[in-house]
Amino acid sequence: MRLILGSASPRRKELLAQLGVVPDAITPPDINEDPKKGELPLPYCTRIAREKVLAVGAGADDLVLCADTTVALGRRILGKPADAGQAAAFLTALGGRRHQVITAVALRLGDRVWERQSISAVKMKRLSDAELNAYLAGGEWQGKAGAYAIQGAAGAFIPWISGSFTGIVGLPLAETAALLQAAGYPIWRVA
């Protein structure tokens, strides 16, 4: 049974390695990730993970694993910022408030699709102008939902979380392991 990781994220590959899983192939899907009008964060994130897993070409016996991470401030989806100005707006809006980080995971084998979601609560401190400008200048916000990565420099801005740290990073390991086991993929092998 081959495992295809449908993600260009090095973090997802690293997180899989923590389970002792090395994908046989990495094939990032190319889909439109724009939210639909009025779409709420959880249904959006779940839909995108499912669309990703269905978009990856695979053989009938191949497992395809995809995930999507969404930062939600109330009903608002904070995706990947288009530029530093939008990143600054996201980080300012998140400052001093709790928000949700949702990661949906989808696994496909043939026509069968398994799905799980991880929802974590995160509090970001209010950033000073110096902190915000230094973070933006570092460029770490690029390509990150909500304009931050908890495993990087922005970890210094997060005094509190409730939920799955690996889910916030981008691949919740408990949910991913359960999906792989449900599909018959042997993750707990004896050497």
How does this structure look, described?
With about 190 residues, this protein is of the alpha/beta class. It contains 6 helices and 7 strands; from the N terminus they run βαβαββαββαβαα. It has a single domain, classed as Alpha-Beta Complex (Maf protein). It starts with a strand and ends in a 9-residue tail after the last helix. About 35% of the residues are buried. The mean pLDDT is about 95.
What class would the helix/strand composition place it in?
alpha/beta
DSSP strand count: 7
The share of residues in extended strands comes to: 25-35%
How many domains in all? 1
Helix content: 25-40%
Main pleated sheet: 7 strands, mixed
Gap from first CA to last CA: 18 Å
Q: Poorly predicted ranges (pLDDT <50, ≥5 residues)?
A: none
Task: Identify the CATH class.
Answer: Alpha Beta
CA radius of gyration is 17 Å
CATH architecture: Alpha-Beta Complex
Architecture blueprint of SSEs:
Elements: E1 3-5, H1 10-18, E2 25-26, H2 41-55, E3 63-73, E4 76-78, H3 84-94, E5 97-109, E6 112-124, H4 129-138, E7 160-162, H5 165-169, H6 173-182
Parallel strand pairs: 1-2, 1-3
Antiparallel strand pairs: 3-4, 3-5, 5-6, 6-7
